[in-house]
Amino acid sequence: QIVVVGSLNLDRTYSLGRLPREGESLHATGHAVASGGKGANQAVAASRLGADVRLVGAVGADAAGTLLLDAVAESGVDVTGVHRRAGDATGEAVIFVDDEGQNLIVISPGANATVTADDVVSDDAAWVLSGFEIPDEAVIAAAHLALAAHARFVLNPSPYRRIPDALAHSIDVMVVNEHELIDALGTSVDSSSDTALLQARARLDVPALVVTLGADGAAAVTASGVFRAPGRVVTAVDTSGAGDAFTGALVARLASGDTLESATLFATQVGAHAATRPGTQSSYPTSDELDRWLRG
Ligand code: ADP
Where does substrate bind (predicted)? Predict the structure, then answer.
């Protein structure tokens, strides 16, 4: 089983002709509410592709919490590890999108900030995936869970903050986009250079580093070399949630026994599929949908 220890957010997206300026009030031209949060997105992406997935996290005892639990469970994810907190609101992301697709996002963590080490339990973990929309304590507990269960630990340090020292030597695979890679290294890096990526992996001191490169696909870096999965040429409609689709798909394939290279190639196809459809979880394919789309 894949255990995702991560966030759930209600995404409230407002469409606007242009983004607001300081002190300004604008009328939205559209409003949509959807199930989101990086943990939930990654769990849904993996589950839709056929993986056995359990999500560990927290929502409020409010209507938004019920909506998120129902949406995630409908994709086949085991949500018995998602706790309901009577005293907290469900996490929310307020997203403004202008006519050019530029966005501005404010996240209110709500119940996500209450996930503690005690919440992080599972008796059947083979792969554990965690990210940074929950407290360090919970991420560290996820790594400990993996260690205790002889499972592999995948970290997606997003949104980036300093990686806790307690995670040193417990990460099997780190998945980052180009911005997170720069933040993690503290310097700019030329991701078109294999040498630069090999140095980055060595500095981050992880066995495997996977860097997503947007339309250019992704690179999987280990001590033995760099594998580049080319981007699939698509007409991108909405790339939000493409990174989470990629990460969920990568772990789904690793859990089914794929090599890192093959899983990375597969994940770029799922990321590209997500970029061609509006929304986040609503843009994630099942294996059948992906096959049909790839045959085009
Ligand atoms: P993030 O959304 O975290 O910034 P990326 O932009 O790197 O991450 O996108 C994640 C993955 O989604 C990429 O590795 C790629 O497979 C796919 N993807 C994203 N944007 C596009 C695009 N415009 N064309 C094709 N694939 C894309």
Answer: 9-11, 37-41, 133, 244
